[in-house]
Amino acid sequence: MSKKGIKLKIYGRVQGVAFRWSARSKAEDLNLVGWVKNVNDGTVECQVEGGEVQLEKFLEWIKNGPRFAKVNEVKINWEKPKGGFKEFKII
Questions:
Q1: Taking burial as the number of CB atoms within 10 A of a residue's CB, which of 20, 53, 54, 88 is the most buried?
Q2: Active-site hit among 31, 38, 40, 64
Q3: Residue spans of beta strands (DSSP E) within 14-69
């Protein structure tokens, strides 16, 4: 299975709603690695690597996020995996 990578920027009510914690939990469930972080502009950024099927499932989840989130837009950039990630971190 070849690994793929995606860089995401998530817009909406995505800070202060346990978005990063929920994203980490979902990524771990799908055996994905990478990171998620809050950005000063009110968005959340995410770098995720893993199998294509698992990444597609993660993307489906990200479009809604956790219960109290309101995702307005997700910018998705598929890229070659950078490697070096051992787990999924909140940074």
A1: 88
A2: 38
A3: 33-38, 44-51
